[in-house]
């Protein structure tokens, strides 16, 4: 898994542009089957891959599966627009799906159709991060005028038709069987199913409300609510991607710092003198003060691992050159010894982590070095 990468998918071009406009230096990434993605960064720490899936749950499921297999992300975020179903959910508001209903499942019987719904809940950790972001309002642009949109956390209904009526048979069906749904759209069920089939990969569906699904869609579209709602959804989605990556990488670093656990059992008159897991550098026994971390030596060790990965073909030439540049930057500032110097070292190592995240042993060692540098800061 690439703990610093999130896949972000949209159905419409205006939704895609709303997300893409927030990404630094997007670059085209072609899947071998012809799907066009773009990759880039949200600042220094979070990598993203964005893709356009088109309308409908079926293409959304196929291309979400393709994106997951291609990028091995920490999470998938689906961002775009939807119709609002509750009066309290206003135009321009954002809905984060606590669960997704695939509402077209049913049987047709003599006395009428009977609902056979499927649903997918947001993962616990992703839901906790999303609700923290909603409470803290850290995602809002402080320079924006007014209070901005409200973010709601609740169910979303996903079907195969555009609902633009509050009195049609279709609308009555949704109201009767999915009364708690805050919004209605056409792709979330496909994306949720793709994530479910990949070991329950975290997926978050984020929808800006562009119409009320009540027959007024033409007028709200004419008032440009689609791009406004898409921009609001994209703003929250980007902030959430950063939070998910921060959580994922911090957990990885904590695990690396703790290292593997070992248990030795002595029997008879034997005693366990020293118990240790992996040892980098020399081993010392006895009472002594903790030795300071030699950052320069740690970076040199990382450089050797990077070169070895390049030589055996696990790093391509361009990635290797970029990794060497980050190592050079880290080395230049490691000798500084100041807090500012250590901050620059940390920044270079985090960028390096994004380049080598696919190489497990290198990523693990790098996380341990980052943790050690953090302790010195």
From TrEMBL:
Q: Name one Pfam family in it.
A: PNP_UDP_1
Superkingdom to which the source organism belongs: Bacteria
- Enumerate the spans annotated as Nucleoside phosphorylase domain: 7-240
> What's this protein's name?
5'-methylthioadenosine/S-adenosylhomocysteine nucleosidase
Q: Which organism is it from?
A: Actinoplanes flavus
